[in-house]
Write a structure and sequence with these properties.
- The chain is mainly β.
- A hairpin with a 2-residue loop joins strand 2 and strand 3.
- The chain has an eight-stranded antiparallel β-sheet with strand order 2-3-4-5-19-16-15-13, covered by helices on one side. A six-stranded antiparallel β-sheet has the order 1-11-12-18-17-14, with no helix packed on it. A five-stranded antiparallel β-sheet has the order 6-7-8-9-10, with no helix packed on it.
- It contains three helices and 21 strands.
Length: about 300
C-alpha cells in the first residue's frame, strides 16, 4: 500500500476566521482561534467535519495579514507566522522574527496510508517533548513512541502502554522556544517522538480527518492556559477533596472499612476520604452494592460521616 498526500497547491480562498487552501488531491484549512491558537485541518476532499468531543471553544475574530509569493502563502498574526509552502503543500510555524517554531517534514508532511492519517514534523536540533498525560517512562518523551487507546491496564509495569487515560496533547521545546500541539481525533492514535529515527516526530490516527491545534507561547503556563481554554477547565474542587484520601486498591467487607475509619479516629489522624474501589459492588456492577459484604450501605456511610 502506497502512502498518499494531498499534493501541491492549486489555489486558496479566504474563509471566516482563516483560509482554505486547495491542492491536487485535497484541501488544507487554517483557522484562527486566537492570534496564538491555530487549527490545522487536512482533508482528502473539500469538506471538513468540525464536530469535536473535546473542544468547547469557537474560533475568535483575530486580525491577520495574508502575504503570497511564488513559493508560499503566509498567515501573519500578532503572535506568529503560519507559512504554507506551495509545492509540496507543507505547514511551518514561525515567530514574528521568522525563527522556526515547528514545521512539517519536507518529504512527508501529512499523508494517508489507507485510512490511517499521519502528520510528520521535522525534528529540530535538540528538541524535547513533554506531555501525553498518563504514560509511564521518562518525563522527556524524545526517542519513544506511544499509543492512545484507553485501556484497563491492571497491574501495569514500567514501560507498558497504553494505560487508563488518553491525552493527545504535548509540548515541544527547542532553542529556548516552545509550542503545544493537541491532536483532535477520537480514533486509535499514535505518537512517535523520534523513535528509531532522527528525522521526524509524528502523530497519526487509524481513520478520520487530520485535525490539530497549534499553541504558541513564551512559557509552559501560557500554552497550558491556551490548551485548557480550548478544551475546558474544571470547576474548583470541593474543600473536602483537598484533604487526606486513604486508598489501597480496595477494602472489603464493610467491617474492614469501619475498622480503618475507627483507627484513623483513635490515632487522631484526619482523613476526609476512604476510596472503596471495586469490591463494594455486586459482581462489579456500577451503582450497585454487594448485598453480603456491604449489606447496610446507608448505615456504613452514616458511620463514616
Amino acid at each position: 500500500m502506497k502512502s498518499e498526500s494531498i499534493g501541491s497547491y492549486t489555489g486558496y480562498q479566504k474563509v471566516k476566521f482563516g483560509i482554505s487552501v486547495t491542492a491536487e488531491k485535497g484541501t488544507l484549512r487554517v483557522l484562527l482561534y486566537s492570534p496564538s491558537i491555530i487549527k490545522v485541518s487536512v482533508s482528502r476532499t473539500n469538506l471538513f467535519d468540525d464536530f469535536s468531543y473535546a473542544v468547547c471553544s469557537e474560533p475568535q475574530p483575530a486580525d491577520f495579514e495574508l502575504k503570497e509569493d511564488d513559493k508560499s502563502i503566509r498567515v501573519v498574526t500578532s503572535k506568529l507566522n503560519v507559512v504554507i509552502n506551495k509545492s509540496p503543500l507543507r505547514v511551518r510555524f514561525e515567530d514574528r522574527d521568522g525563527n522556526v517554531i515547528n514545521e512539517d517534514d519536507a518529504g512527508l508532511g501529512t499523508a494517508w496510508l489507507g485510512e490511517q492519517v499521519t502528520t510528520y514534523k521535522k525534528l529540530q536540533e535538540g528538541e524535547r517533548f513533554i506531555g501525553l498525560g498518563e504514560k509511564t517512562g521518562n518525563l522527556d518523551r524524545k526517542g519513544h513512541q506511544y499509543q492512545n487507546w484507553t485501556t484497563d491496564a491492571y497491574g501495569y509495569h514500567g514501560g507498558q502502554d497504553p494505560l487508563y487515560v488518553s491525552t493527545p496533547f504535548y509540548i515541544g521545546i527547542h532553542h529556548r522556544c516552545l509550542y503545544g500541539i493537541y491532536f483532535d481525533n477520537s480514533y486509535k492514535s499514535f505518537f512517535n517522538f523520534g523513535a528509531s529515527n532522527n528525522r521526524f516526530s509524528s502523530f497519526s490516527a487509524d481513520s478520520g480527518e487530520m485535525n490539530y491545534y497549534f499553541f504558541e507561547g513564551s512559557n509552559v503556563r501560557d500554552i497550558i492556559q491556551s490548551y485548557t481554554w480550548l478544551t475546558g477547565r474544571m470547576e474548583m474542587p470541593p474543600l473536602w477533596s483537598l484533604g487526606y484520601q486513604q486508598s489501597r486498591y480496595s477494602y472489603y467487607p464493610d467491617k474492614e472499612v469501619k475498622t480503618l475509619a475507627q483507627t484513623f479516629r483513635e490515632k487522631d489522624m484526619p482523613a476526609d476520604v476512604i476510596v472503596f474501589d471495586i469490591h463494594y459492588m455486586e459482581h462489579y456492577k456500577i451503582f450497585s452494592w454487594d448485598p453480603k459484604n456491604f449489606s447496610d450501605a446507608k448505615g456504613l456511610l452514616k458511620f463514616l460521616e
